[in-house]
Predict the structure of Peptidase M23 domain-containing protein.
Amino acid sequence: MKYWPFPKIHSKSLPVSGVPGSFWENRGDRHHCGVDIYAPEGSDMLSVEDGEVIDIRFH
């Protein structure tokens, strides 16, 4: 069980509008509707809601 405050997991900032991987980024024929998480492999992740991971890719 995790409690507040959450530990600082990763020091890099999240992508902002116009940066590759941004939510709802215009990709010409479609919009990017996923959430890219930038963190080292094996990092602990915390979720704000229940959900399902449907794809994992390493770039």
Summary: DSSP finds no helices and no strands in the chain. Residues 1-59 form one domain.
